[in-house]
TrEMBL record, chains A, B:
<feature type="binding site">
    <location>
        <position position="48"/>
    </location>
    <ligand>
        <name>FMN</name>
    </ligand>
</feature>
<dbReference type="Pfam" id="PF01613">
    <property type="entry name" value="Flavin_Reduct"/>
</dbReference>
<dbReference type="InterPro" id="IPR012349">
    <property type="entry name" value="Split_barrel_FMN-bd"/>
</dbReference>
<feature type="binding site">
    <location>
        <position position="106"/>
    </location>
    <ligand>
        <name>FMN</name>
    </ligand>
</feature>
<feature type="binding site">
    <location>
        <position position="99"/>
    </location>
    <ligand>
        <name>FMN</name>
    </ligand>
</feature>
<feature type="binding site">
    <location>
        <position position="45"/>
    </location>
    <ligand>
        <name>FMN</name>
    </ligand>
</feature>
<feature type="binding site">
    <location>
        <position position="64"/>
    </location>
    <ligand>
        <name>FMN</name>
    </ligand>
</feature>
<keyword id="KW-0547">Nucleotide-binding</keyword>
<feature type="domain" description="Flavin reductase like">
    <location>
        <begin position="23"/>
        <end position="170"/>
    </location>
</feature>
<dbReference type="InterPro" id="IPR052174">
    <property type="entry name" value="Flavoredoxin"/>
</dbReference>
<feature type="binding site">
    <location>
        <position position="100"/>
    </location>
    <ligand>
        <name>FMN</name>
    </ligand>
</feature>
<dbReference type="GO" id="GO:0010181">
    <property type="term" value="F:FMN binding"/>
</dbReference>
<feature type="binding site">
    <location>
        <position position="69"/>
    </location>
    <ligand>
        <name>FMN</name>
    </ligand>
</feature>
<feature type="binding site">
    <location>
        <position position="68"/>
    </location>
    <ligand>
        <name>FMN</name>
    </ligand>
</feature>
<feature type="binding site">
    <location>
        <position position="98"/>
    </location>
    <ligand>
        <name>FMN</name>
    </ligand>
</feature>
<keyword id="KW-0288">FMN</keyword>
<dbReference type="InterPro" id="IPR002563">
    <property type="entry name" value="Flavin_Rdtase-like_dom"/>
</dbReference>
């Protein structure tokens, strides 16, 4: 799967302070889950991913037993959670509907471009708005009984056009950088307007 | 806390098929968690609530050890997850910032009106767009180590103005019925525009 991977230099990507990494997921976006095992990369979509703790930051993600990505995560103990954008609507739906088990060229056929982040042997999906590098905290009972995986977030980055100074700026960023929130049957909502409570 | 509770008849509320209950949470809204113990009701806000399974429907919710709502859930084994609306922005932020431990009149002071749902000895928050009655699946290790609670959804209802025939209709319903998605510091996003992937 290395043919579609390239070293990607994107000046819009900046590290996010780990204590604020939960904010990348706090609004409940549908995410892409990527993992690498034995030189093979895979990416799937997951609507069931949620922050779990602030410091150190942790998250949960539900991974069906049928998915190759889960297999890779069980093998490597590492994965990336990333926040796809409205511009990636079709890509997100495709990687969530197709399996690497059926199509060795899944990523290419879904239009996924991967890039590397220094210091992490993990596949990062280009074009997303945020990335969280995760280290599995093995909890065999949760994994077997509920398909529920717990991980610590060990690195976080965001596209500074849409997330900077610890906050999302969906109202001022380009509209196609809004996060996606899946319902069912190919229907997603984009995140909308900002409101401040007193 | 019974003075603010009343039997509420709202013709807009209809049961949601349990197999489609996950759709009420799939887009990652911030929720209100309510519980009753020994005749006392409480309501808190939670950004970290997530679907876990389809059938029977299950969900996860993270409940800090400091909260009275968690105490009530540990005592009763039952709770309600409900989806608040833009119209409930201040209410949602207030029940998430104040504790019943400090103010016995928290619910009244936060503007919470409760109602009853036949067959369920639980407090339901009026004005929300969806409600899920939940039965705790005790997992002591998750609860103690991660503040993570797993429950089965045993009843689901929605405001038919904004959720019907198994789908949200945020684009056509009144704008103040959109769901809220919390970030931090009192800032929320409303859910936005609908998109369909091929």
């Amino acid at each position: 799967m290395h043919h579609q991977r390239k070293t990607h230099v994107d000046n819009n990507i900046a590290a996010v302070e780990l204590a604020k990494a939960y904010r990348l997921l706090n609004h409940g976006p549908t995410v892409l889950v990527s993992a690498r095992s034995q030189g093979i990369d895979n990416v799937m979509a997951a609507a069931w991913c949620c922050a779990l703790d602030f410091a150190p930051p942790k998250l949960t993600v539900v991974l069906d037993k049928m998915t190759k990505t889960r297999e890779f995560i069980e093998q490597s103990g590492m994965f990336v959670i990333q926040v796809p954008t409205v511009a990636q609507l079709q890509l997100t739906h495709r990687v969530g509907s197709q399996s690497l088990a059926d199509d060795a060229n899944k990523l290419l056929n879904c239009g996924v471009e991967l890039f590397e982040m220094a210091g992490h042997d993990l596949p990062f999906v280009a074009g997303c708005s945020a990335w969280l590098a995760c280290k599995l905290i093995p909890e065999p009972n949760n994994q077997l009984q509920y398909d529920l995986f717990i991980a610590e977030v060990i690195g976080a980055w965001a596209d500074t056009q849409v997330f900077n100074h610890g906050h999302w700026h969906f109202d001022t960023a380009p509209a196609d950088k809004r996060s996606l929130h899946y319902i069912a049957g190919g229907q997603f909502y984009a995140i909308g307007e900002s409101f401040n409570a007193d």
